[in-house]
Task: structure prediction
Amino acid sequence: MLHQPELERLVDMQHRSYILLKWMAKAVSEGFVSFQTAQDYATLPEAAEGWILGHYLNIPDDARPPREDLPAFCAIFSTYLTNSFDLPGNPGKRFSSPNANCYSPKWLIDAPNLQAKRLSATDKRRAQAMRIKVMMNLAVQHGLGVREVRVEGFLDDRHVFEDASLVAYGYDLLQREKGIANGPSVLALWRGFAWNKSGSPKHGFRLKAKLIADAENRLLALLQDIGQNAMTANVAEPSDARETSAQSNVKPKSTPRSP
Result:
């Protein structure tokens, strides 16, 4: 299961990185931030780290990461383009790059024009697979005999769906910290708990570590109930089967013949 202190750290970095993304977009549009220092970096996390170090004291407090967490923070920050946003086809006058193949500076310059990705049916299926996976992993960790088809059925319940989305998103943060981006399926997970059933964002929602931890505890309780019911059914079934088998093996008494 997710450890609370680690979860709080990851959620804090996720929140700060999103604030930084919005702040950076505004700073670029106002001409306050120069991204020339990012040109020497070959990969996006390295480009982000170089840029943050160059502007560290200018970054707002609620967006500024602790220096000791900077590599992990930049890894999370760098996944937004793959997971959640697209670059527009026409970036306008703000687009400039001395090297057409230099991906990182291009992304930084275009940040003000980032648009949320459109989710495909494939993205939604992958998100559902991620929900099922975290529930099955939770069952295995606690030695619960739960079938995948049962888990998938319970995801039709909106509360279970939101809890599984939260927990899957929490585990994905562990991967994002390593620079692993799982694509728009992560955005689908986010909308699974940060948006309401009608398909619009929940007013004032903010992700907190406790939300994920509580969701995981509820999922575990559900899986324990499912596992217990399965064990009860499995115990009862062999007993009934033995009784039926025993009855079928009883030979009728032979009727004595008349002398």
The radius of gyration is 27 Å.
